[in-house]
């Protein structure tokens, strides 16, 4: 248990450093885009700079959540603050949905009246943006996998696609003068980000609502536990996520002889860890005779 907690602490600390690196790169390139956008009178570059600044704020929130996740359990928060990362993922996802709405509104406006674009500057900054965002993506990918990290990667993916769209639209406008390519590509990218955002929103909501983690089947887990030698049946089984990395389980385990519980318990724990990677299990043993008695008959008689 101590080794598991130490590993989680190390992962969280590494994740915090990763978010800080991404934050510096994002804000640095956003400043470059603002300067280039003003110089070239390009609304596209200024809009992408705003997107990058928004992502910088998202990384700051993610870094703060990773720091909170390092806090140990306390009397007020007996499970610790691991879910701060999940809440940050939820907040960043909602942030991303707002960005998608803004991109769609701007794209519709540009389809009605496409503005002139300095194609050469857009191509240059778009190519630089691909390199910078790819670097940020690789930095984040080296960190641990969590909902918080997935939300951050989603932001970077949006920036990477935005830079690619800027490059493609710059090339098309430079060689053909067709201004509609910019808003059309923006709508396509907004649709891709929307799908990913809704998927991440679903996963974060499942953790906060203490739903069964994806990939785990409650009935199958119950049957597997009931198949352990010495176990008669399992009831009141609950499986949920403490955070995006930790899965918890609680259950009542009916056994024939309470004297065998010291042998049955490690077998169940070993089965859960080996088969489902569940390391945090709270199990309550019950004698088989007691399990057969209806609950209404267990209270005091008048």
Describe the structure.
The protein is mainly α. It has 2 domains: 2-208, Cation efflux protein transmembrane domain (Alpha-lytic protease prodomain-like, Up-down Bundle); 218-297, Alpha-Beta Plaits, CATH 3.30.70. It is 68% helix and 9% strand. Strands 1-2-3 form a 3-stranded mixed beta sheet. Strand 1 (231-241) and strand 2 (247-255) form a beta hairpin. The radius of gyration is 26 Å and the shape is elongated.
Could you name the CATH class of the largest domain?
Answer: Mainly Alpha
Order of helices and strands: HHHHHHHEEHEH
- CATH architecture tag of the largest domain: Up-down Bundle
Alpha plus pi helix count: 9
Oligomer: single chain
Keywords:
Alpha-lytic protease prodomain-like; disordered N terminus; mainly alpha; three-stranded mixed beta sheet; Alpha-Beta Plaits; 2 domains; elongated; 68% helix; single chain; 302 residues
């Amino acid at each position: 248990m101590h080794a598991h907690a130490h590993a989680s602490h190390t992962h969280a600390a590494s994740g915090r450093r990763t978010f800080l690196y991404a934050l510096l790169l994002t804000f640095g390139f956003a400043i470059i885009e603002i300067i280039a956008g003003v110089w070239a009178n390009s609304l596209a570059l200024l809009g992408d700079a705003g997107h990058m600044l928004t992502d910088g704020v998202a990384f700051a929130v993610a870094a703060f959540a990773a720091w909170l996740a390092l806090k140990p359990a306390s009397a007020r928060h007996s499970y610790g603050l691991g879910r701060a990362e999940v809440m940050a993922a939820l907040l960043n996802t909602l942030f991303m949905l707002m960005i998608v709405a803004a991109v769609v509104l701007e794209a519709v406006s540009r389809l009605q009246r496409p503005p002139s674009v300095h194609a050469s500057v857009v191509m240059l900054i778009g190519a630089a943006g691909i390199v910078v965002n790819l670097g940020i993506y690789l930095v984040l990918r080296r960190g641990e996998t969590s909902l918080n990290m997935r939300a951050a990667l989603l932001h970077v993916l949006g920036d990477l696609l935005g830079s690619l769209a800027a490059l493609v639209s710059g090339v098309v406008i430079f060689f053909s003068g067709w201004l509609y390519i910019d808003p059309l590509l923006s709508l396509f990218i907004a649709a891709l980000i929307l799908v990913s955002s809704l998927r991440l929103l679903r996963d974060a909501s499942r953790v906060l609502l203490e739903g069964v983690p994806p990939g785990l089947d409650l009935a199958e887990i119950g049957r597997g536990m009931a198949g352990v030698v010495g176990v008669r049946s399992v009831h009141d089984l609950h499986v949920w996520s403490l955070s995006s990395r930790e899965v918890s389980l609680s259950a009542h385990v009916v056994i024939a002889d309470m004297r065998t519980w010291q042998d049955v318990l490690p077998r169940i724990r070993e089965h859960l860890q080996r088969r489902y990677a569940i390391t945090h299990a709270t199990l309550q043993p019950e004698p088989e005779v007691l399990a057969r008695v209806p609950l209404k008959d267990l209270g005091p008689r008048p």
